[in-house]
TrEMBL record:
Sequence similarity: Belongs to the glycosyltransferase 25 family.
Source superkingdom: Eukaryota
Species in which this protein is naturally found: Penicillium freii
Transmembrane segments: 6-25
InterPro entries for the chain: Collagen_mod_GT25, Glyco_trans_25
Protein name: Glycosyltransferase family 25 protein
GO molecular function: transferase activity
Keywords from the named record: Glycosyltransferase, Membrane, Transferase, Transmembrane, Transmembrane helix
Amino acid sequence: MVFSASQIRVAQLLFALLGVVFILFKLRPSTTTERVRSDQHDWDNLDAISNETLGVQKVFAINLVSRPDKRDSIILGSSLSNFHVEFLDGVTPDKVDAKSYPYNWNHDHKTTEYAARRAHINGLQRIVHERLASAIIMEDDSDWDVSIKAQLQSFAHAARALQFQDTQEIPTQSPYGDDWDILWLGHCGMSCKTDLPFYLTPNDPTIPMPHHFLPQWRDPPAFEGYERPDHNRLVCTANDGVCSMFYAVSYRGAQRILAALSVNPSGLAEEIDIGAQFDVSLGRMCDNGYLRCFAPYPSITGGFHQAGPRAKSSDIHDETGEEEGFFSWGVMYSTMLNINRILKGERTVHATWGDVDMLDVIPGEITMGEGAIYIPKRIN
């Protein structure tokens, strides 16, 4: 085939343009992030999250029989949010036979901390025993936003996008995706695997301003060259977290945690656990890849403190202090603080703090923006 002079000139021009593009690409800063489309998947089963179990098979709350006041709060709050909770009995040290402690438990920790860990393991045992595909486990001082179902739908879209970003696969088992062990929805600090993509949802009106975040036991998640805007919700592959206030666990995840923290197959405990509290051990399992964990930042759920002495707030630690009023932390439009308004049939709910953009909102009108995946640039 013989090419004309004009065809040759066009080809030369195209090669030159490609060369410029290549050079510009190579000169791009390698410490920033790249935004990519997140809407290439047509997933339509997010409505399952609006059911009475928030898109999982069961929702459990851990509660000591001696604390019916906390059970009252969970039952009433969940009824007003239209989801159903089953209870797992909390564990006290006197109910734990010394022979049941794992061989590697660190006895420098409080006996109440092991009892709390045992209560979570009992919940995982039940998930495995009942063959539940997934379940949520919360602690009995949890609080959640009046828009929790909309929040979880937004989170599910993010978590699924991170799981299936390179494929057209559609989740078949869970609206949250099929390749996860832990969804760490309520925490008091977490960090991300910074070499993996993350998801950012802008204009989320349920995010408190940073000075209202609950006390954090970890620095905010950081990706080199990127800083999260205040009203944007981050979802990432988690490598650590603190506080197991509210989390979802898959059947596979429950099996793996039960193996690691109780059954202790040969050599497994030494790889991932040093006899720590439940949340600390969970974070280590996320960090080393034993579990696949996804988490939002800031935390979606928070906590609630009933009026009375500080001792009412914890069944693990010996809190002391003067009488305190009702308060919620970590939640913009607290379900627990708005119970009276909801029971009265008022159209709006009130923000937890007075210095927010929208002091009163209609719960059904709370919406989140459309998000996108961001891919960290690798340093050449």
